[in-house]
Design a protein that fits this description.
The protein has helices at 21-29, 51-62, 80-83, 95-98, 115-139, 149-182, 187-279, 282-286, 313-334, 394-413, 438-469; strands at residues 289-292, 295-298, 301-303, 341-344, 351-356, 373-378, 421-422, 425-426, 429-430. By secondary structure, the chain is mainly α. The protein folds into three domains: 14-31 and 67-147, no CATH class; 185-279; 283-359 and 369-469, Autophagy protein 6/Beclin 1 (Actin-binding Protein, T-fimbrin, domain 1, Orthogonal Bundle). The strands form three sheets. Strands 1-2-3 form a three-stranded antiparallel sheet. A three-stranded antiparallel sheet has the order 4-5-6. It has a three-stranded antiparallel sheet with strand order 7-8-9, with helices on one face. α9 packs parallel to α11 (438-469). The longest helix is centred in the middle third of the chain and has 93 residues, at 187-279. It starts with 20 loop residues before the first helix and ends in a 6-residue tail after the last helix. Residues 277-460 form the Atg6 BARA domain. Keywords: Coiled coil. Residues 31-84 are annotated as: Disordered. Pfam families: APG6 (PF04111), APG6_N (PF17675). Residues 146-273 form the Atg6/beclin coiled-coil domain.
């Protein structure tokens, strides 16, 4: 046989080999709990648990099924079917089943049939009895039999621990029961508790009424809150529409302001440009008259020559061309037409046309004026002439005299020139080059340019006065 816990082979005690029916019954009855063995419960003033719990436990216990146990005890060689019989754990053995059978006797009073067979049968019966005993013991307890001594010691130790825990639990229940019995209220405490209960119920009723009133107020406030929420949503929509319109207006205003600023900036720039242009003397910038030593210059070109400084005729011709252009520009600016002369500024080859009208021109039809005789006077010189041929400068001299005549007419028109002009002389120097010293001719050219500079200054002053008379205002 084997231990049912550690599965090691075990040796049965000798006392189990010869079991009589009384010993077998004693062993089997010791595992059956009896009503006489249960201790009577002490009289308690109150039950440890409620009656409904007791009724539920009895109702469930009455419908409980039989427990199922896993048994793996090896059986003897005989009776193989009895080992798997499902009701073998609950078979009640009688004395006839336990007592070994007597050897068979021959009817004629002779000896037994076989002594060896009886010995083996006796051993088999003993093993069968022991096996049934273990099965009965295993069925009536929660421990599978048989077990070895070591497993028995371990089992006893575990049961002792469980016993200690159960003892502590019992002591705790006893202490709780003692305290519960000690806490039984007196009659006065019961009356006071009932009075407090009535007061609590009255307070509960008042609280319920107050709660109902508060719930009604809450319902009214909820309705009001819903109305306010609806109004708030309407206001939100109005606010959204307002801000949308406001943003659109702000965008339009910003665009307008940006356009206004752009126009104002452009206007300010134009005003500053106009003021700068008004302060700018276009005549002085176009015709710059200065001096270079003894020579008067116009736009950097020297007008005149001396024996010490022989200025080229190309430069002199260009200077006379700029001077002719200056006088023609001033006359056109003031709207003056020269009498008997017409200036033709053409750079280094500028000319002055002399207009000779016939004497009978005044008697002709005014719708068909007579054509004047035009004489071209060259305001330039082709170069140095051979010695003794200065009279060949006559055409150049006539052109310069005609220029002085035009300059004199401008003086009579309203320009106050600093020097007096009489025919071919300006101040006391003759403008003619023939039979004249170069220094005197150079001084006359210088005085001519000074008078032209006065013309420029007077024209600029007139133009500035006209601009000041019509000021521009910022819009």
């Amino acid at each position: 046989m084997y231990c049912q816990k550690c599965r090691t082979p075990i040796k049965l005690d000798g006392s189990l080999e010869d079991l009589n029916p009384a010993a077998f019954k004693l062993l089997t009855d010791s595992t059956t709990p009896s009503a006489q063995q249960r201790p009577l419960s002490l009289h308690q003033s109150r039950p440890a648990y409620s009656q409904d719990r007791r009724d539920a436990y009895d109702r469930v216990s009455s419908r409980a099924s039989q427990p199922t146990f896993r048994r793996s005890i090896p059986s003897s060689r005989h009776g193989r079917e009895s080992r798997h019989h499902p009701s073998m754990s609950f078979v009640m053995l009688t004395d006839s089943q336990v007592v070994p059978q007597a050897p068979h006797i021959v009817p004629d009073g002779g000896r037994p049939i076989s002594a060896g067979v009886d010995g083996n049968q006796d051993m088999s019966d003993k093993m069968e009895t022991v096996q049934r005993l273990f099965e009965v013991l295993s069925a009536r307890s929660d421990i599978d039999q048989p077990i070895c001594v070591e497993c028995t010691d371990m089992l006893v130790e575990g049961l002792q621990k469980r016993l200690g825990a159960a003892t502590k639990e019992r002591d705790a229940y006893v202490e709780y029961l003692r305290q519960a019995n000690a806490d039984i209220p007196s009659e006065e405490e019961v009356v006071q508790a009932r009075r407090q209960l009535e007061d609590a119920r009255a307070g509960e009723e008042a609280a319920m009424k107050e709660l109902e009133r508060l719930e009604r107020e809450k319902a009214a406030m909820d309705d009001e809150l819903l109305a306010l929420d609806a109004e708030a949503r309407g206001l939100d929509k109005e606010e959204e529409a307002f801000w949308r319109e406001r943003n659109a207006f702000a965008t339009t205003l910003a665009s307008f302001q940006s356009e206004r600023d752009r126009v104002n900036n452009r206007y300010d720039h134009d005003i500053k440009q106009a003021q700068r242009l008004q302060r700018t003397n276009v005549y002085n910038d176009t015709f710059t008259i200065g001096h270079d030593g003894n020579f008067a210059t116009i736009n950097g070109l020297r007008l005149g020559r001396t024996s010490a400084v022989m200025v080229g005729w190309e430069e002199i011709n260009a200077a006379w061309g700029q001077t002719c252009l200056l006088l023609a520009t001033v006359a056109e600016k003031v709207g003056y037409t020269f009498k008997g002369y017409r200036l033709c500024p053409m750079g280094s080859t500028s000319t002055i046309e002399k207009l000779d009208f016939p004497p009978a021109a005044s008697t002709d039809d005014a719708s068909r004026p007579a054509k004047p005789k035009v004489t071209v006077l060259e305001l330039y010189c082709s170069g140095d002439l051979p010695l003794g041929l200065n009279f060949l400068h006559r055409r150049f001299d006539n052109a310069m005299v005609a220029f002085l005549e035009c300059l004199r007419q401008m003086d009579e028109f309203g320009f106050k020139l600093p020097y007096t002009i009489r025919k071919d002389k300006i101040r006391d120097a003759s403008i003619k080059l023939s039979f004249n010293q170069e220094e005197t001719w150079t001084r006359a050219c210088k005085d001519t340019l000074i008078c032209c500079k006065y013309l420029l200054a007077s024209t600029s002053d007139m133009d500035q006065k006209q601009r000041s008379a019509t000021p521009t205002a910022r819009r």
